[in-house]
Design brief:
The protein has 201 residues and is α/β, with parallel strands linked by helices. It has a single domain, classed as Isochorismatase-like (Rossmann fold, 3-Layer(aba) Sandwich), CATH 3.40.50.850. The protein contains five helices and six strands. A six-stranded parallel beta sheet has the order 3-2-1-4-5-6. The chain binds pyrazine-2-carboxylic acid (VGL) and zinc ion. The site of pyrazine-2-carboxylic acid has 9 residues, from helix 3.
Length: 201
Amino acid sequence: MESRFRDAAVLLVDIQNDFCPGGALAVSEGDEIVPVVNRLMPEFPFVVSGRDWHPADHISFKEQGGPWPPHCVQGTRGAELHPRLDRSRIDAHFRKAASPDADAYSEFEGTDESGRSLDEALKARHVRRLYVTGLATDYCVKATVLDAIKNGYEVFAITDAMRAVDVEPDDGAKALEEMKSRGAHLVTSREVLEYAEEASR
Ligand code: VGL
Ligand code: ZN
């Protein structure tokens, strides 16, 4: 099948239990993106997942003077991908913010099990266009989208496949505006799926 996504990849940002309802740093409706992401993944030749992966004494935690409750602690259930996410579709896994003394919101700061960066993995697959989904819109998704643009990718933020923390009520909306003003395309999953369908006819 001729695919329009030959030079594209879809990136799943931190779709982990702790960012979903019931988790330590729950994002409202965070789990509602899971079926949307499951529908998107089969359209892409390369599916990449990134995870927040903190040691128990991480600098971003309140006990260490940071802004967040403990979350995504290495090896805990909270750090696992959401159980309804179709992991069989994920081709490569990255982890970030894994050392105690530094935080990282962008997946471009993460590495895979062999120490390879996300940028290296995408360039090795000749990816030029990156479709971004995940949690949370106003933190890790935003940082990842802005880094992707800096690294030269054409970036599509799939707005219904992400949710915001919204510490302030319009943080998510502002984050989307900032992504757009830096050159990201804001699209819906429906638009992406229709685009994929048109190509396969
Ligand atoms: C995130 C806060 C702290 C995120 C990670 O994935 O957006 N937010 N750590
Ligand atoms: Zn974190």
